[in-house]
Each structure stands twice: as structure tokens, then as C-alpha cells.
Amino acid sequence: MITCREFTSFINDELVRVGTLFTEKQQQYSAGADPLSNFRTGALLEHHDGGYDMMYDVAKGYLNKHIAFLYDHGIADKTEESLRDMVVYGLIMLYMVKKHKEWLAQVKE
User: What radius of gyration do the chain's Cα atoms show?
Assistant: First the structure.
């Protein structure tokens, strides 16, 4: 049986790893001053709209790739990598949700 201490320690360690992974991924997804450049370009290509809701839609596609891998391969060599990537995408998507809600609030004013 696992202990709360072991479980909490594992989660804390993974959060540190995800933070490091986020820093690495951020360099891949950004261009110049736009940290969401790849998502924005994807949204423009797919939807002709670079808004946060459309970037969110594009990010779901990034997640789908990893979800498909998990379904197809189960627990395999790259499972942890896909799960960590999904956490990073989830955090980026949370930011997109925040910014989209801020935009909606401004539009309603």
C-alpha cells in the first residue's frame, strides 16, 4: 500500500518535471514576443481566426495525438512522456480559457 507521503512526493516531483518540460516546450511553441505563436498560426490555418477560443480548439488536437497514443499503446515506453505533455497542454489551455473569458468580459462592456 502506498503512503500519502510517497504519493505527495511523487506528485511534487512530477510538477517540477512538468515545469522544466514547459520551459522547453515554450521555446518550441513561441516565436518572437508571441508565446502562443504555433497555436495562433494553427488557429489561423484551420479557422481563419487567431482568437483564444480557436487556439484552444487547435490545442485539443495536440492533446488528441497523445490520447490516441495512450489508447493504442497502453502503458509503454513513451507513456510518461505523453502524460507529461498532456499536463503542459492542459496548463496552456487553462491560460487560453482565462484570456478568452477576459476578452468576453470586455466585449460585453
Answer: 16
